[in-house]
Design a protein that fits this description.
Helices cover 66% and strands 1% of the residues. By secondary structure, the protein is mainly α. The protein has a domain of 60 residues.
């Protein structure tokens, strides 16, 4: 963990004005400067830095950071939970410890063959914890995820959704949970998913992360394994391109090699490649610098880092060999989604 932290710091120093990071410098799911010390301390059994970090995000209403940090801390606790156990023993009513514990409980049940039943039993406790969290929307994101895994009915999910947006109408994580619930509700819900995502993005402030929600909807549409999904890709081709264009604009608002923008840029590069927009994808792969996120590259491989490096090498090669005599296919230099 400490070596990864030091490599992250060194990589940032080398990428102030980045070209594509060399393969040896690429980092998978690297923590940012705020999260890294908390993870290093947790590895040694000390929960205080994690408690301080989450307390700060709560006090300053940094809901997007709070959501990401809670997710990463819960993922770490799946294999090293001693620090979280000590934290909960020392402060059983701490809202930050309760948040990480609830996220961990959902994660542990998610991979079980009995997921729906196990999560159905867990939902009441997660909701009770969320109800005591005041204006914080992040526990409601956990409740939404748990309800989705439990295959909750529409009325139950809509009640949870109302609680979440009442606290933060533009919280990205809650919107992702709702989008995934909508996508799972019907094999041909792609149009509804795009409608939901586009409306959320249009209503959000310019710098809000939820403006990338149409990109997430495009990803869902492109990866649905069904004949209606293939038809939807052809039907909504222009909307998928528009979702990518909106995300490109959002990416441009962040510095190159910014760890905060890494997940957006990794997802954007993936979608652009699926849309046949290789030159645009190559630019996002450059902008992400050394920061690779498991999502979305882990969708079809157990080696997301290797998948990213291969995709990046292929994209570079294709851009280098592109000539005016052989332009990319599709309108405006883009391949049609049906080609992939």
């Amino acid at each position: 963990m400490l070596r990864a932290f030091l490599r992250t710091t060194a990589a940032r120093a080398r990428t102030r004005t980045p070209r594509s990071a060399p393969d040896d410098d690429v980092l998978l799911d690297a923590p940012d400067d705020r999260l890294a010390p908390a993870l290093v301390a947790a590895a040694s059994g000390d929960h205080a830095p994690a408690a301080g970090l989450l307390s700060t995000t709560r006090e300053h209403a940094e809901w997007e950071h709070r959501d990401r940090y809670a997710t990463r801390l819960a993922a770490f606790a799946r294999s090293r939970a001693e620090w979280l156990d000590a934290w909960r023993a020392a402060a059983p009513d701490d809202p930050d410890a309760l948040l990480v514990a609830a996220r961990l409980a959902v994660h542990r049940r998610w991979d079980s063959p009995a997921r729906a039943e196990l999560l159905r039993q867990l939902v009441p406790a997660v909701v009770t914890a969320a109800e005591s969290s005041g204006p914080d929307p992040v526990p409601w994101r956990t409740a939404l995820d748990a309800a989705r895994g439990a295959r909750a009915g529409h009325a139950e999910f809509e009640w949870l959704w109302a609680q979440a947006v009442r606290r933060s109408p533009h919280h990205y994580g809650c919107h992702v949970a709702a989008l995934e619930y909508l996508a799972a509700s019907s094999p041909d819900a792609h149009g509804e998913c795009l409608d939901f995502a586009e409306t959320a993005a249009q209503d959000a402030p310019e710098d809000a992360l939820v403006r990338a929600l149409p990109l997430r909807a495009a990803f869902t549409c492109l990866n649905a394994a069904s004949r209606p999904a293939a038809t939807a890709v052809r039907t909504h081709c222009r909307r998928l391109d528009a979702a990518a264009d909106r995300a490109i604009a959002l990416s441009a608002a962040h510095p190159a090699a910014d760890p905060w923008a890494a997940e957006l840029r990794n997802l954007l590069a993936y979608v652009l490649l699926r849309l046949g927009r290789r030159q645009d994808a190559a630019e996002q792969l450059r902008l992400t610098g050394p920061y690779v996120t498991s999502f979305p590259w882990d969708r079809d491989t157990d080696d997301p880092l290797g998948r990213f490096l291969q995709v990046r090498a292929d994209a570079r090669a294709e851009v280098r060999t592109a000539t005016p005599e052989h332009p990319p296919r599709g309108r405006g230099g883009r391949a049609t989604p049906g080609d992939h």
